[in-house]
């Protein structure tokens, strides 16, 4: 019974059935003009995406071209390349975002290094991590080492399939992390981004862990402290906007017109 419940709690890597291309325009050109230019220079029929593409607005104000169906990754790559060629001399920024997954590997003995962890991941994937990130090994509460990993979800699906990985002499446990909520890097609350922030509070340049200035979270040795919750008289021994934050979503909704 307990085994069944534990299996139900195990998270899996959810792969999207779409690939995306994003467009962000600078102050010198609007989105309407950018789209007209793109339509004039790019024959969308030749890219074979006309029946499988939708355009939607990103929370940051840009545009997202979503492509689904067969060969979606290849088609999105081609569309991104065409758009980059069209706007290479204009203030229009084209990107090909890749779905990523974060997970923790725990149960590492004292002799294990970050390079050994990375080598083990490459061995399972059969390829380099590329756009992936490997954190530092830190001591967990049980005295064993743990490390944070971020990599493309297609690779994470292979790495996390068994929820464990052989590193050194023992099996290390893999725990897939929840997807991070939207976070505003101006007021540090969650649920919105800086472009849509109406808060009068400006915490730019402060440490995400302790709220002080002069250093970043990677260098922080202070206790976690949430200035928002402290000001509200709530429990504040946590990072601002973390899952433990009682008012993490206070600023989620703001009026569109002030």
From TrEMBL:
UniProt GO MF annotations: nucleic acid binding; zinc ion binding
Keywords: Metal-binding, Zinc, Zinc-finger
Domain CCHC-type: 183-197, 207-222
Keyword match Zinc-finger: yes
Pfam family, one: zf-CCHC
Zinc keyword on record: yes
Record PROSITE patterns: ZF_CCHC
Sequence intervals crossing the membrane: none
Full protein name: CCHC-type domain-containing protein
Organism: Mycetomoellerius zeteki
């Amino acid at each position: 019974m307990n085994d069944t419940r534990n299996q139900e709690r195990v998270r899996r890597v959810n792969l999207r059935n779409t690939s995306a291309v994003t467009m962000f325009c600078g102050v010198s050109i609007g989105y309407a003009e950018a789209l007209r230019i793109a339509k004039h220079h790019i024959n969308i029929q030749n890219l074979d995406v006309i029946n499988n593409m939708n355009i939607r607005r990103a929370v940051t104000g840009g545009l997202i071209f979503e492509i689904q169906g067969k060969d979606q990754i290849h088609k999105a790559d081609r569309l991104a390349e065409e758009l980059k060629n069209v706007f290479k001399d204009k203030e229009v920024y084209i990107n090909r975002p890749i779905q990523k997954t974060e997970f923790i590997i725990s149960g590492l003995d004292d002799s294990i290094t970050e390079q050994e962890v990375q080598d083990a991941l490459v061995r399972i994937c059969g390829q380099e991590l590329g756009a992936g990130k490997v954190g530092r090994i830190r001591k967990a509460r049980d005295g064993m080492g743990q490390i944070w990993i971020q990599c493309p979800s297609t690779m994470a699906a292979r790495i996390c399939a068994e929820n464990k990985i052989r590193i050194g002499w023992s099996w290390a446990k893999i725990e897939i992390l929840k997807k991070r909520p939207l976070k505003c890097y101006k007021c540090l609350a969650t649920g919105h981004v800086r472009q849509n922030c109406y808060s009068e509070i400006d915490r730019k340049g402060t440490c995400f862990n302790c709220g002080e200035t002069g250093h970043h979270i990677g260098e922080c040795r202070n206790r976690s402290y949430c200035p928002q919750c402290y000001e509200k008289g709530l429990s504040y021994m946590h990072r601002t906007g973390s899952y433990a934050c009682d008012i993490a979503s206070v600023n989620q909704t703001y009026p569109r017109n002030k």
